[in-house]
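Reviewer 2 asked us to include a model.

Predict the structure of this chain.
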Amino acid sequence: MDLQMDSPEWRVVRDTHLQRWVADPAAIQFFWLFSDTCELFDDLIDKDKPIEDEHVIRVLFNVLTVLPFNPFFEAHKQKLVPVIITGINAWLDANKLEKGGENDQVFSYVLRGWYMELLLFMISLTRGIEYMRSVSMEVRHFFTWDESLEQYKADLKRAALA
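Predicted model (structure tokens):
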């Protein structure tokens, strides 16, 4: 893929995929809101990039006033919240594991991609398990093509030296 991950061009491609994979505008909005929130918290914890006030304000409003009334979230919150809890746990563990040895870093690399599990679960809710299975590898490849395990481990070494 010739796109830079998370560039405006990549987001257009991502959104086209989400429309096809999820096929529910409210579910896609939920995924955007959730992703934006996770990005903010990751930046707060990692302290690896500046945090814009606008991002904090946007997430504050979205989490407290938009997300609770999202029709997809309202319809599926009993199923989504347990998945989100395990995702938060995976993210916290990944942050700890990345500071460990080589085996820990491999697990960290895998756990960092947990959000795909939420997306795949959302696809199963909107399109069914059979469809989810038919696009599962496509979803995983789309969200993981940009960073190999070797690149990830090299980035961890550079960050430790900084």
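The chain has one domain: 8-161. Helices lie at 8-22, 25-46, 53-66, 71-97, 102-111, 115-127, 129-144, 149-161. We have added this to the supplementary material.
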